[in-house]
């Protein structure tokens, strides 16, 4: 029983040492959303980097097509 416990402890230590470091790669998440992605997919009337136009687009989107209460009445 003691030998099994020692083997299990040694195996768990070896598994922990083999873990690879996790690094952040890919898109940056610290940029504000209104700065855009630089791609061609943009809503009409929205200018990338303009916070006021971003907010107006969000208000219009929330008021028109994504308000379930208005759509069901």
Protein described:
The chain has 73 residues and is mainly alpha-helical. The chain has a domain at 45-73. Helices cover 47% and strands 0% of the residues. It is elongated.
The H/E string reads HHH
Please state the CA-atom Rg, rounded to the nearest Å. 26 Å
> N- to C-terminal separation?
70 Å
Number of helices: 3
Give the total of beta strands.
0
- What does the main sheet amount to? none
Class inferred from helices and paired strands: mainly alpha
Helix % is 40-55%
Overall mean pLDDT stands at 76
Measured by DSSP, the beta-strand proportion falls in under 5%
List low-confidence stretches.
none
Coarse morphology: elongated
Summarize the structure.
The protein is 47% helix and 0% strand. The chain has three helices and no strands.
Q: Which structural traits does this protein have?
A:
about 70 residues, mainly alpha
Q: Topology, pairings included?
A:
Layout: H1 2-17, H2 51-63, H3 68-72
């Amino acid at each position: 029983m003691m030998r099994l416990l020692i083997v299990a402890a040694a195996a768990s230590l070896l598994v922990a040492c083999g873990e690879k470091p996790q690094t952040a790669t890919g898109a940056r998440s610290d940029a504000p959303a209104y700065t855009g992605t630089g791609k061609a997919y943009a809503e009409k009337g929205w200018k990338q980097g303009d916070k006021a136009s971003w907010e107006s687009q969000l208000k219009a989107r929330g008021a028109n097509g994504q308000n379930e209460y208005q759509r069901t009445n």
